[in-house]
Amino acid sequence: MLAWLRFCTDFLRSPEGHAALLGFVGAVMITFGGFGAGGVRKRDPLLEAMHLSWLRFGHGYALSMMFVWIGVLLMITAWVRLGRATIGSGDRPGSGVRLNELRAIVGIWTFPLLFSVPMFSRDAYSYLAQGALLRDGFDPYKVGPVANPGVLLDNVSTVWTTTTAPYGPMFLLLGRGITAVTGDNVVAGTIALRLVMLPGLALIMWAVPYLTKHLGGKPTVALWLAVLNPLVLIHLMGGVHNEMLMVGLMCAGIALVLERHHVAGIVVVAIGVAIKATAGVALPFLVWIWMLHERDRRAEEGREPLPHPAVMFAKIAGLGLSVFAVVFVATSAIAGVGIGWLTALSGSQKIINWLSLPTIMAHATTWFTSLSLEPVLEVTRMLCAAVLMVVLVWTWWRFKLTERDAVLGILIAFVAIIILSPAALPWYYSWPLALAAAFALSTATLMTLVGLCTWLMLVFQPDGSIGLYNFWHVAAATFAAGVAALSLRTVDPLRLRSTRPSVEPAIAARP
């Protein structure tokens, strides 16, 4: 006990400990500010009972916004400081942070966010309403939340009230289970949703550093970039997005396949698809990895001649498809629904923002022509969809020679989907980020990713509205992103200090 207390004391006195406390303070500020500026309920009896309703209006709202944005900036600052220590640059050229320390910091930063209102998004209310549909005997793939009036429907964003569920049957089952326990209690339901996401966070914390074994990255850098990232923690945990589960299951499944547990890996990825269909992008690439392992195994055993590649592919792909089908049919049967979620995926087309290339192309076209946005957007989305199909097929065929190639192919496919799909949202970038973190990345690449993640974190409003159409909002986010990127390598990129900071003595390792 004394040894543990001594370790905690030493850690809190270290620069890493200071950064951990700074990020914790930021998370607390986000949680408190969210009560007024986050994705709050239209009517909040809890705030009224606590006499805090004033946080949602006038000066109270302005104060809440200040708390949220200061908290976000504190978390970004703490994250960048940890990054300098983790990669060994800036004021910590020879130091390092241990993996278990980073895992502890994940818990420290996540804990306050478990009790916040949904931040930067209102999707949690849609999740609960869709779970209540299944609970009350409706098919969420045939009707939207509007078919089941009540407190849960009251808080769903208007654009999604008539939209059928675009998520897999496993996630609907989780939603049904949560609403069966919490009823129409929005607060309890939101907290329960976050608790359900925690296994996904745990899987990412295990799988991403583990993937570095095969992909050449550094475990501590991978965990810092893919998990401690404010874009991930604030959006996926604070915003309560099912990407946390989906990405965790996908990364764990890929890690299992790389370790030659092929069937188990396919099962885990299939469960990820049953959460959100995007995880299915990884499956065709996992067939290549399985084939490589089978070829190596046969060569080691001296079993010649090897089967024709087409025969081996047909066998392994067929087996993988069978495993996937069993998992998906089972979850659909338990949920009592069909495959209507496939048609509901088109609901994302209701989202129009500057994060997707089709939207950028459509807006640019309207600037130089007399055409209106809607018909042009339909054309640009069709063109980008065709390009996306070509890119996905080419990527799958091109990246098949090694394990590293196959995972890189999954990464490229995710990036292509985000850019070329009809709609994109900031937290979508958690899909490829989790895989990119496992590769060996240069400091310049890490700086670019820090800048991008910071920008994506800042371009949405705390209540989930889009800030991309406000010039000054985008300008401020771009400036902050540039400073964050430069700060990964330089302690004071704006030269605000009157004296040059001294370099701290390197700490090679702590017992």
UniProtKB/TrEMBL annotation:
Transmembrane in keyword set: yes
Xref: InterPro entries: MptA-like, MptA/B-like
Segments traversing the membrane: 20-40, 61-82, 102-120, 191-212, 265-291, 311-344, 351-373, 379-399, 406-429, 435-460, 467-488
Membrane topology: Multi-pass membrane protein
Recorded superkingdom: Bacteria
Keywords, ordered alphabetically: Glycosyltransferase, Membrane, Transferase, Transmembrane, Transmembrane helix
Compartments, record wording: Membrane
Pfam families registered for this protein in UniProt: MptA_B_family (PF26314)
Main location: membrane
GO molecular function: glycosyltransferase activity
Keyword RNA-binding: no
GO cellular component: membrane
Similarity annotation: Belongs to the MptA/B family.
Protein name: Alpha-(1->6)-mannopyranosyltransferase A
Organism of provenance: Nocardia donostiensis
